[in-house]
Structure formats: C-alpha cells, structure tokens
Amino acid sequence: MSAGPSTTLPGRDVLVTGGGGFIGSHLVDALADDCDVRVLDDFSTGSRENLPEGVTLVDGDVRDREAVAEAVDGVDAVFHLAAVVSVDRSVEAPLESHAVNVDGTLAVLDSARRADARVVAVSSAAVYGDPSEVPTPESAPLEPLSPYGVDKLAVDQYARLYADLYGLPAVVVRPFNVYGPRQSASDYSGVVSVFLERALAGDPIPVHGDGEQTRDFLHVSDAVDGLVAAAESDATGEAFNLGTGRQVSVNDLAAAVKAVTDSDAPVRHTDPRSGDVRHSCADVGKAHRTLGFEPSVRLREGLATLV
Ligand code: NAD
C-alpha cells in the first residue's frame, strides 16, 4: 500500500467502462459537465440512451485489448465498471463471466499502466461471501460464494497488485447493494427495482424465505460520490467499502416500497434462494476516514426517486 498522486477530476480526460449501464451512466452524468468523458461499452446490458450528449463513445468489448488500449489512450483516470454483473449468469456461464470480468479488467489495468492513468476498479461486496462479521470491514476474510464473487476478488487483487508491482495509481471500491433509477429489474441485485415494479402494478412482491435477511442499500447518487472520492483521493492499492452501514431486512424493504408507492400489493414469501447470504452490511469507517465518504440518501427518500 502506498500513497499515489491525487487527481482532481474537473478538466480531466476520463474513461468510464460500462458507462452505458446503471451505475456507470449516473457516474457519466456527474462527470460530463466538468470532464472530457469517454465511454467504453458493448451495450450488452447498458443502453446508449442512458448517455448524455457530448460523451465520446467507444463501442467495444473490454475483452478486446486493442479497443481497450484505444479507449484508455490519453486519459487521466479510468473508472472500470464494465462487467457481467449477474450472479446467476456467472453460475450458468462461469467462463464467459471470467473472461469479461477478469480478462477485461487485466486489459484495462495493463492499458492504464501504459497511459499512467489513475484507475478506480469496481469490485463488490460479493468478495466477502457470507461474512462472519457484520457490519463487515475491508479486513474481513474474502471468501466469495459465486463465480461472480471470485471474479470480483480477482479484480480487487489485480488492482492491488498492479499498484504494488508497477506503481499504478489504482484503488478498489466494493459497493454493497446499489439501487436507483435505470437499474434493471432482471436479477437479484435489482431487488429494489423488482419490488417497485410489482408494487406499482399491484402484483405480489416476491420475498425469498422469511424475509429477515438483511442488505445494505446504497442509493446510486451516493455510490457515484464514493467513486469520485476514490478517484480524487491519494489512496493507492487499497480497497474501500461503499455502503450506508445500515442493515435493512428484505421485509422492511418491501414495506418501505409499498409505503412510497401507496400500494396494497401483497407480499408473497417464496422458497429461500440456495447460497443466499443471510446478512450483508458495510462497515464504512475506512471510506469515511480516508475518502470523506458520507452517504446521505435515506432509504425512503431514495425509493421516492424511483417512483
Ligand atoms: P450494469 O449491467 O447496468 O452495467 C454494466 C455495464 O457493462 C453495462 O453497460 C454493460 O453493457 C457493460 N458491459 C458488460 N459486458 C461488457 C463487455 N464485455 N465489454 C464492454 N462493456 C460491457 O450493472 P451495474 O449495476 O451498473 O454495475 C456496474 C459495476 O458495479 C459492475 O462492475 C458491478 O459488478 C459493480 N457492482 C454493482 C453493484 C450493484 O448493486 N448494482 C454492487 C456491487 C458492484
């Protein structure tokens, strides 16, 4: 671990991989006024419509080293978000998930090393698996339970190694459950979107198991603040949790969604999902102390941004 040069972002050339996706597109929105923003995306889950005017688009795949080198060339900072994000897809097709998530990350880190760009590598709370300590600090054992989690552990460790071996100014963030506008309602990471969609339609809200499992729901605007703070800090070779530090049960989430949508949709308990983590919550002390990270959006307020 070492301190590296800090990068104040305004006026800089910045690349966002996965910038057409849920979190990436909010990050692009936040940067577009003050930075020259480039986006590398293959739009497999993201959308061109998410992008504001004036962004330079590199329509390509993070597995394509030439496309990555072209996208990274000349930028000061890279936010690396492009990934196969679905845990279920990683279980169905671990080789594909690995190729995008791990080989793609290596391509980004290696090009950034040549361009001497600062990198914010986006890992995940999935690296902790079923944590023994909740709220979970960054120092907790890293024992992922899915191919996606193992991929993210590789992202995490390669970024640290590139910092240690080559002096690349890379930093890692581990977001917990991010929610907000533009999130797809297609898999478990989109539980908030699924609940909202059902509540608004008056359809049953599907809660796995007893619903007393807890998650740490971070509004996307706070996640973006954490990403920017990580880029602008001088921390290098370190990982930071991004969450709220508050545990919310899935039952409480369903109740909050019903309240903000004024819905009387019933809650339907389904079989528990095998391999589901019981409790997940970030210890955000390190991110607060080092990055000044301070999530500010309360759950009900955040849900209201989606209605
Ligand atoms: P998303 O699916 O909306 O965004 C991923 C983006 O990457 C999409 O625009 C997609 O088109 C692009 N992409 C996928 N494969 C690609 C490839 N081979 N080449 C180029 N682009 C490709 O998902 P998201 O929720 O916005 O996730 C963004 C990042 O944050 C991911 O790295 C994810 O692992 C991480 N993350 C998300 C959460 C969450 O709660 N959403 C939590 C922890 C970590």
What is the count of DSSP helices, taking H or I runs of 4+ residues? 10
In this entry the ligands are:
nicotinamide-adenine-dinucleotide
Oligomer: single chain
For this structure, what is the CATH class of one domain?
A: Alpha Beta
Second-tier CATH architecture of one domain = 3-Layer(aba) Sandwich
Structural class based on helices, strands and sheet pairing? alpha/beta
Strand adjacency order, main sheet: 4-3-2-5-6-7-13
The amount of helix comes to: 25-40%
Describe the SSE topology.
Layout: E1 2-3, E2 13-17, H1 22-32, E3 36-41, E4 56-59, H2 65-72, E5 77-80, H3 87-92, H4 94-115, E6 118-122, H5 147-166, E7 170-175, E8 177-179, H6 191-201, E9 205-208, E10 214-215, E11 217-219, H7 220-232, E12 235-236, E13 239-242, E14 248-249, H8 250-261, E15 267-270, H9 285-291, H10 299-304
